[in-house]
Amino acid sequence: MKQPASLLKWNKGGLKHPMARARGLGAGGGAVHHWVMQRITSVFAVPLTFWLCAAVAGHVHADYATFTAWLAQPMNAVLMILSVLTFTYHAAQGLQVVFEDYLHNEALKMFKLVAMKLIMIGLAVASVFAVLKIAL
Amino acid sequence: MAGCKFLFVKLYLGMFMTHERPLSPHLQVYKPQITSVLSILHRITGVVLCLGLFVLGWWLLAAASGPEAYATFQSVAGSPIGIIALVGWSFALFYHLCSGVRHLLMDTGLFFSIPEVYKSGYATLAAAALITAMFWIAYL
């Protein structure tokens, strides 16, 4: 059976189903990277969680001078920055999946995803800056 | 005759359900079970912990801003509501941690049979409660 000319034209590029082309919503190709990074950050997060818990429990009642002196020590500052970066990355990835599952309006979803990522980047930058300001 | 009635009921309901049909992940139409409840709890604790990250950021920024800002943070964190929130966050953190480890093990193909799913599920809850209790006992 002879295929319509238009179909042949659009099939030249690859094996994508014509319906996927028509919708323009085919897979972006970033899902595997997202999945792998979520696992990697979760593995990093396990020891960092225990360190952060001990840090919070040990210093939540500490006065200003004690806490800043403790955070100014290189190892503590590095671990705090690593924790903040790991957790914000992991949190942004997790929130992305939640948004993708529960937001069904495509335009609003994209807007909220971008806003969420910007807020998480802002949080990470602010936290890292705070640690550096204390430590340096 | 009965089939005809059923068809009419279906058509009648269909008039209302066309735009209101439940979309994924169908939280409201399934009976809660340990599998789904733990999965939902993992997600809820994850979202709660995102809010906790902002409190951590506030703590660090307060310490970077000076003694007054740090004192304000400490008065909020040390208040009864602050302590309750910290206990809640610690449980959310340890539950998400234990459940996350369980998910990582499931990624390798473990715990796929129903008895294993139940056992590992209850073990996750118990471990989270135990670590939370140990953390607060050590802290006090």
Short description:
The complex is a heterodimer of chains A (136) and B (140). By secondary structure, chain A is mainly α.
Describe the fold and architecture.
- The complex is a heterodimer of chains A (136) and B (140).
- Chain A has 136 residues and is an all-alpha fold.
- Chain A has one domain (28-135): 3 helical TM bundles of succinate and fumarate reductases (Up-down Bundle), CATH 1.20.1300.
- Chain A contains six helices and no strands.
- In chain A, helix 4 (64-72) packs across helix 6.
- Chain B has helices spanning 2-17, 34-65, 67-77, 80-107, 114-139.
- With 140 residues, chain B is mainly alpha-helical.
- The relative contact order of chain B is 0.09.
- In chain B, 81% of the residues lie in helices and 0% in strands.
Core attributes:
heterodimer; A: 136 residues; mainly alpha; 3 helical TM bundles of succinate and fumarate reductases; 81% helix; B: 140 residues; 5 helices
Topology:
The complex is a heterodimer of chains A (136) and B (140).
Chain A lengths: L4 H7 L6 H6 L7 H29 L4 H9 L1 H29 L3 H30 L1
Helix pairs in contact in A: 3-5, 4-6, 5-6
Chain B lengths: L1 H16 L16 H32 L1 H11 L2 H28 L6 H26 L1
Helix pairs in contact in B: 2-3, 2-4, 4-5
Percent of residues in helices of chain B comes to over 70%
CATH topology of chain A: 3 helical TM bundles of succinate and fumarate reductases
Shape of chain A: elongated
The dominant shape of chain B is: elongated
Low-confidence stretches of chain B at least 5 residues in length (pLDDT < 50)? none
- Quaternary structure: heterodimer
**Mean pLDDT of chain A, rounded to whole units?**
86
| N-C termini distance of chain A | 74 Å
What is the succession of H and E elements of chain B? Answer: HHHHH
The CATH class label of chain A is Mainly Alpha
